[in-house]
């Protein structure tokens, strides 16, 4: 009611409380299915919050919540995998990790006991006492985490993923001529946050909301791709041209991207399935990939995680080892041509090239990834729209 009445300050305050409750519930959930269920039901809260902030003129806050709304599941998975690799951990850090885990177990036990007891027989005093105990344990756990962050900030970020502020995200931009373009679709519009090292702007494609844009992508791009590949191939150019018009790419470039050389793209929902490099710019036969260097990231949290774990920077460019994985299913002849050209350009040795299904096995792939700092993959992948975590190379 507050949202529709355009009482933006009240709406923002209310949605902030609701989002904190959602995120707390997510940390309490033990099963992955329950976590996903909580996230799925909360999408509308984040969308309304983003729209309320924009309507109130609070662009920075709108961007922070749009980033916060993106599922943290992927960065959680990456962090957990990194944490389980068993690198040697200093004794003090190990002790803090153990304290953190013990407190988490106590919290879980208290919550489980709270649920299993007959709540009808509890007095309000008992109920409040139990809640206070959980709150006390949570405060202790957070203090341990703060101590851990002082000792090892990367490891701390891996066991507890916190939302990033605008200033933290801006620090991820490594060049003054680079921008983050973060897309976010609400019920009515698609907003594009243009983030630079020292400023943020907003470009809105009015009227391109969930049905009018995301539904259109599903109907005209994804369904033909899955069900009628010949039809999909014949309409690639026209669909991408219309999508560029819907997103107002020429206006975006002229108003916000003058002097920019590189884009870090953060797509939203079905825009993850779009090859942005192939979107026309409005100039004669020019595409986005002709005009800009392009990087993709699922979220700014993933960008931060990759930068923290990036070991390539410890090598100079001359000493970098390159590898390729080419035509892994023996049905992409041009992939071998691509690999051959790269091998000549970067002097890649034959043992660092996996060519065809006999060489490009998963075990060989993993071994090569351990040996090189730059790995170029030219082969098929599968995007599972029904279960994204099952997507694979």
Which features characterize this protein?
single chain; 393 residues; alpha/beta; five-stranded mixed beta sheet; three-stranded parallel beta sheet; 17 helices; globular
Description:
The chain is of the alpha/beta class and 393 residues long. 55% of the residues lie in helices and 11% in strands. It contains 17 helices and 8 strands. It has helices spanning 8-28, 32-55, 59-69, 73-83, 91-116, 124-151, 153-159, 166-170, 210-227, 229-234, 236-246, 249-256, 288-291, 300-308, 333-346, 356-359, 362-371, and strands at residues 178-185, 190-195, 200-205, 262-266, 293-296, 322-326, 353-355, 374-378. The strands form 2 sheets. It has a 5-stranded mixed beta sheet.
